[in-house]
Amino acid sequence: MRRVVFLILFCVLSGGCSLEKRRLADDVESLMKQTINIPIYLDVKGSFRKINHIPSNKDCHVFLIDENRKPIFVGNPLMSPELEKLFWRVLMGKTEE
């Protein structure tokens, strides 16, 4: 099984409305109150999205990267049973089937 390190990244879009910014602030505040120790990054300039060519489709905003920081899975495994199965196969290192 692959070693897993979690990271939460929020991209703050400069043109976002105040309601979106308030929700983001609430989400970050809620995460910071949790007892789990997960790094949280706020990308206020959108650099991460630009450098990594992240599509606007929100289904592609969840991804798994390897130890070399290369994406090995893109998609939200909670969106469908097929994506979830593929996610676990990739995570367990069983990509050939």
What brief labels describe this structure?
97 residues; alpha+beta; 2 domains; two-stranded antiparallel ribbon; 4 strands
Low-confidence stretches: none
Determine Rg (CA atoms, Å): 15 Å
Binned strand content: 15-25%
Helix % is 25-40%
* Shape descriptor: globular
Strand order of the largest sheet: 1-2
- First-to-last CA distance: 16 Å
In total, how many beta strands? 4
Structural class: alpha+beta
Number of helices: 3
What is the H/E order?
EHEHEEH
On the 0-100 scale, what is the average pLDDT? 75
Largest sheet: 2 strands, parallel
Number of domains: 2
What does it look like?
With 97 residues, this protein is α+β, with helices and mostly antiparallel strands. It has two domains: 1-54, no CATH class; 55-97, no CATH class. The chain is 34% helix and 15% strand. It is built from three helices and four strands, in the order βαβαββα. It has helices spanning 18-33, 47-52, 81-91; strands at 8-11, 40-43, 63-65, 71-74. The strands form two sheets. A two-stranded parallel ribbon has the order 1-2. The protein has a two-stranded antiparallel sheet with strand order 3-4. It is globular and about 45 Å long.
Task: Describe the structure in brief.
The protein has 97 residues and is an alpha+beta fold. It contains 3 helices and 4 strands.
How would you summarize the topology of this molecule?
Elements: E1 8-11, H1 18-33, E2 40-43, H2 47-52, E3 63-65, E4 71-74, H3 81-91
Parallel strand pairs: 1-2
Antiparallel strand pairs: 3-4
